[in-house]
Amino acid sequence: MKFNLFGGSKTPRQIRLGDLARAFWQERPENQGVIKDQDAPRSDADPVFQNQDVENFWLEYVRPFRSTMTAPMFQAIQALLLEIERLEPCPSISAADSETPRQYRGLSRITLLDHSLAVAREAVDLLRAKENDFQMHAGKILLAALFHDMGKHPSASIANMPHSYTGAVWLQKRISQLRDREPIVEAVRLHHADYGLKKFSSNNPILPILVQADRIARQKELARVIPEEKTGQEGLSICPPASEGNTQHPPEMDDAEWDTWFSIEKFFAGLRSRITCMGFDKFCFGDEVYFSPSIVEAVLNQIRAKQGLAPADFRQDLPGLITSRIPEARNEKYRLRFKDDFKPMKKWFFVFAAADFEPLGESARNHPRDSEGRWLKDLERV
What we know:
It is a single chain. The protein is of the alpha+beta class. The protein folds into two domains: 28-224, Hypothetical protein af1432 (Orthogonal Bundle), CATH 1.10.3210; 251-381, no CATH class. Helix content is 39%, strand content 9%. The chain has helices at 17-24, 52-62, 71-86, 112-130, 138-146, 163-174, 181-190, 206-231, 255-258, 264-272, 293-306, 318-323, 362-365, and strands at 2-3, 13-14, 282-285, 288-291, 330-338, 345-353, 376-381. It has a five-stranded antiparallel β-sheet with strand order 3-4-6-5-7. Strand 5 (330-338) and strand 6 form a beta hairpin. The protein is globular. 30% of the residues are buried. Residues 1-10, 18-40, 195-199 and 228-252 have low confidence and may be disordered.
């Protein structure tokens, strides 16, 4: 049988009726929440995962889509899961990451792998609920969700670049053979774009699902971690109960204890290494250098870690702790104004003279900007 797939005067293409049926037909599960293929016995074609969580994820969320996913996409997911499983574990957040919303920065004990699997589960579940033909799009959302935060891993990071950008670069290199790679890579690159003051508009159907899944996963992680920190529940947990010498929120330290580990030289050296023109948490502008409180806290804990000390929470009196030891430091709130039509932003900063950090690298002297296209025009103390 012949079908004119183009219309008009274009040459008809002859295809078999059976091939046409297979192109448009897909088996729908009786229950969209359960796909029967996950209960099929393991075959020699299945990869061997060492991590049980990855193994379970493969069986429940990847293998069921084998018949509705292109072979290159299915193989890419398999290869990348095997790759990230073998990487050294790292946290899913960093206190110095300007793209991580402040309310999530206490989740340092959630590993990148655990968070990636959680976001992918949420993304597939959202896709199932929103689209009847969700199986046809599962491969793209799986790739975007599983590897959206790979830019946070030390092996993938690029100096002075946000993790969303470096993650997109990392993934682009590994799925360059895929025909549908553009929306996948774009979703990774823009998955934090709407956290800023200027909203991004995109016709990419993967992006809103990824953003929503990321937020849902983070909220669930917070719900699991916070009760454990407060009550010290026993048993298996992401965040183990606080114990002596290992507590996230220790009592306030006196001056004598501070003097055992803190030094101005180490403090300035830690701050200097973080100055960059990318983002608005740690930058040089004019004759002064500006650091957000989260950056200062991260540097203090970096000093403690190098001396074998547990992390501490300095948020109770961080301005007093710093200005009492460095009188020339200022802790002030500023209004950041940007070029073009971006809305101003208000932030607290610790401010130091740029001369205290010389020599500064060339990139640190460049004009401050961020991944959302904002370029700093001026700062006004408020």
